[in-house]
Amino acid sequence: MTHLTRCHLNPARARRLTDSPQRLHAAVEAAFPPPPAGQATGHRVLWRLDEKGHQPSLLILSPTPPDLTHLVEQAGWPRLATPDTPGWDTLPYAPLLSDLRAGQRLRFRLTANPTRAVSRPGRRGIRTGLTTTADQIQWLIDRAASAGFTIPADERTPISPYVTVSATRALRFPRTTDSGSRRDVHLRTATYDGLLDVTDPDALRRTLTDGIGHGKAYGCGLLTLARQSS
Question: What per-residue string of b and e applies to 199-214 under the rule 16 or more CB within 10 Å gives b?
Fold first, then answer.
């Protein structure tokens, strides 16, 4: 079973984590016990950092509920935590997945790493982050059909899709590889907000649980849905 968890972070204490996708990735990984010896995890954990005003919150999509005690202690409000209100909320994701129907129009949010492969003569192509809003939106539109949805036209400006890039970040942070060497990771992210029409519920369910694009270890790829407000 899949679960969606939201943990509000204390902006006065969380900056060290929120400024580094590598540290936040490690904090998310620490929320789950290691698999039994000889067994793979068999699943992907997706996460996203949302910031509304000056209030950051962490969303985690996972097959088992996380234990975020360490995160609340580091970057939450640990003295306010109780067994009933530990500092995060986890809900089953199955009801949303099972309710998807072709023709539904839903609101969505996605933080992704929109890129394109730039070829080099005689060498392997290099993945490069897209920098313009138009290119970032086109990147999402190009992937929508296989992801199980389309983006409708904005009724206010019918020639434009109903999606905006509400935030972008250019990130650079060190990463230690499995061999112990260190290298810098360059990551450009775009946060999309808009409307989508469900075309293939099964494909959209896979998209919701598997994510979209690259950079999933660093907070990219998690698509979330909500009903339109009346």
Answer: bbbebbbebbbebbbb
